[in-house]
Amino acid sequence: MADYKGIKGFKVKSLASDPTASAAAEGQVWYNTTSNTLKIVLAGGAPVGTWASANTMINSYSQRAGAGTQTSALASGGTSGVARGETELYDGTSWTESGDLNEDRRYISGAGATSSAALTIGGYAGTGPPWYVDTVESYDGTSWTTVGSLNTGRATYNQSAGTQAAAITMGGNNPANTDLAEIWDGSSWTEVASLNNARSQGAGAGITTDAILFGGADVGAGEAQTEVYNGTSWADVSALNTGRQDLGGSGSSTPSTLAIGGLTSGNVANTESWNGTSWTEVADLGTAKKEVSAGVYSANTASIAFAGYDSGYSNTTEEWNAAAYVIKTVTTS
What we know:
Elements: E1 3-7, E2 10-15, E3 29-32, E4 37-54, E5 65-69, E6 72-76, E7 87-90, E8 95-98, E9 109-114, E10 117-121, E11 136-139, E12 144-146, E13 160-162, E14 167-170, E15 181-184, E16 189-191, E17 203-207, E18 210-214, E19 217-218, E20 221-222, E21 226-229, E22 234-237, E23 248-250, E24 257-263, E25 267-274, E26 279-282, E27 293-294, E28 302-306, E29 317-329
Parallel strand pairs: 2-3
Antiparallel strand pairs: 1-2, 3-4, 4-29, 5-6, 6-7, 7-8, 9-10, 10-11, 11-12, 13-14, 14-15, 15-16, 17-18, 18-21, 19-20, 21-22, 23-24, 24-25, 25-26, 27-28, 28-29
């Protein structure tokens, strides 16, 4: 490649096209000889990255509660046709089995910043009645302890977020879709403002004062609706590009959210990133699947998706790694 010396004292590469995601780096400058423009890579924008296969789980289940991050993730409960109680921990390399839940449950959700400090919330026990339970359990890295119950028992699959000490659960069903939202303060649950749209089988992310809920089921159809919570009320915002249900979600804050996989007329691999204003389609999962779980506290630059249902109950794991950047044209104005 020739060097471009059109700016005094400044030397940049001449490129016929902008660099790919893997080659781009913040602060990189080049001259695009096709468009005759000077370009620069700046921080921000949609995360550009890829999903890569990681070590498989011990159990092949779907509808599992997910918590933690890419290097400290937890999966618990789920189904293989019946409700399960097994717990698995991921250390960034491999999965190990730990203490079982006290109550086997599926269609449950999780919250927690690490694999050693997590919650499992609500679910469908399948041993009822009651079928839909208000059970909440807290994990200390070794075993589960039953703690304060939800005010309303319901299946909450993937519709919770936050930490072990400050969690939020949003919507669910019992058996109809509900608009209920509850917040956990470390000792008890309190009902807060209702969702604008009752839903189940969506996905959530964020914290109790900055939460997001997206996708879900409405009379069996995958939906695109997105709502955000500011600690007081819910607001409808830009919808997903691909409406779906049974999807995974991750993000420790709303601008770091990913929507992962799910179900429309069939399983999908779509991944979308939320930047606080709108959703952007990014790289697909390696395997399309529904009922997928994720490390709910992961960022949109380093996330993890696991379990689910593709052609059968799945034990696959995929890791998402990305850089958030935007390519800008340098102008004199």
